[in-house]
Amino acid sequence: MGTKDSSETSELNVQKDVSSISAIKTVECIGSCTNGNECFAWVRNGNITCSCSGCVLSVEEGNPSNRSMDSKADLSGLLNYFVNYVERIHTTETYGILSFKHSFYDNSEFIVITYFIDGNPDVIYTVSFLIEYDSSGESVAKTTLVDCSGSCPNDSCVEIYNMNSGSVSCGCQSDECTITIEELTI
Length: 186
Prior knowledge:
eight-stranded antiparallel sheet, three-stranded antiparallel sheet, disordered N terminus
């Protein structure tokens, strides 16, 4: 597993068919908790689950290309890696997932997890995972974590997946916004 920051690279290039239209699956927990607490999702045993009673798991699918939305990735392993990543980067075990957005392309999948830590949903973080298929398109060749962190003067320091070029970069080019890239073995 390797890590790079903005001084070494500013984007991750991915081979993909630029004419492909993505299918998107978004998972969120919505509603109000019966105990008055914040409604959000978290990972339990490699699955996304809602935080409380009254909070409803919502799965929204958009599939203009009629493409398969069956992931080739080890999503349970990826979600468990996310939990460990939050603990390692933020030194906390307290987090909440606001959304899990999974985009499907011809030769790749792109996942963006939007989350908060320490019970504060006013400060939002994102982390992305890029899953690339082998040349046959049948199995996963590489899974990469991409995390942009810091601040931007006039924009958000978040991960951007460019559908035309197949690259992943941060939302701004600033010394205060850094990109972390980790190749995963899950």
